Fold this protein.
Amino acid sequence: MKLKTLLYFILVFCIQSVDAQLFIELYREGYPRSYLFGTMHLLSKNQFKVSTNFKRYLDSSDLLVEELNLEDLEGSKKLELAKLTRLPQGKVLRDVLPDSVYQAMAFIFKNELKYSAFKWNALQQLHPLILESLLLQHCVKKPLVPETYFYNYFKKKGKACYGLETPQEQMLLLTSLPVTLQFKEFPKTFSLVQSDYNNLLSMYQKEDLNALYNYSTRFMPDSLNQALLFNRNRTWLQTLRVLLSQKSCFIAVGAAHLAGPQGLIELLKAEGFQIRLRDRE
C-alpha cells in the first residue's frame, strides 16, 4: 500500500474548507441544536485537549452519535469481531500480498520495530489492514482515540450513545476491498511512516481543511472514495434525518466524512441545516 493510502484510513475510520474549522453547529428551525465534529482517529494524549468551553457543547447534547457504538465492542461481541480480522482459512499474508509489499512489511516489523519471530508469526493470519493499524499505533506515544473519550464522557453523564453502523458492518466493508487495490506498494522504512503521519497531524491541528481534503482525494481511486466515504455518508444521512429531528446530537466522525459535495456538511445543508462555526477553545 502507498504510504499516503495508509494514512488515509486515519481520517476516514479532509475536508472542503468551512473556514478552517473541524467543529460546527447544525441549526434548523424547529429542530434541537446539534453539533458535528471531524475527528482524527488516532492521536496522543497530549494532542487531544478538551477545553471547558468544548465540554459545554458536550453537556448540552442529549445523544452521542459516532461511526460505531463502542458498547458493541465489549464482551462477547469483541470476540465475534476478532474473527472478521483474520484472513480466509488457510491463507497467510504471503498469499495475499505482493512479495515486495510483504518483504517491506516484514522488514519494518522485524528489523525496525523489533518484533520477535514468534510475535511476527502470530500476525500472519491477520488481514493486512490490522497490521497497518498496529504500525500506526507505533507512530504515537500514549495513543488516544477521541471517540473513546467522547463515549466514556457521555456514559459517565448517563447519556445515550448511538452507532451509525455496527463494527461488523465496518469490518466487512474494509476487508471486502480488493487487497490489490490497497497494497500495490508499502513504505520501506518506519521513518517514512512517521514522517507522513506527522505531516497529516500538522494539517489536522492547523484545521487546514483544504489541505486535508486534497490529501484524501488526490491519490485515492474513485472506487475507494465511493466505498469508504460517499456511500456511507448517504446511508448515515438517512439515520441522521431522524435523530436530528428528535434530540440534540453531538456527532463525531472521521474528518474525511465532512468533505466535498458528497460530504456530510453539504448533505446536511441540502436538508435545510445552517452551518455555524464554533470554537473549541
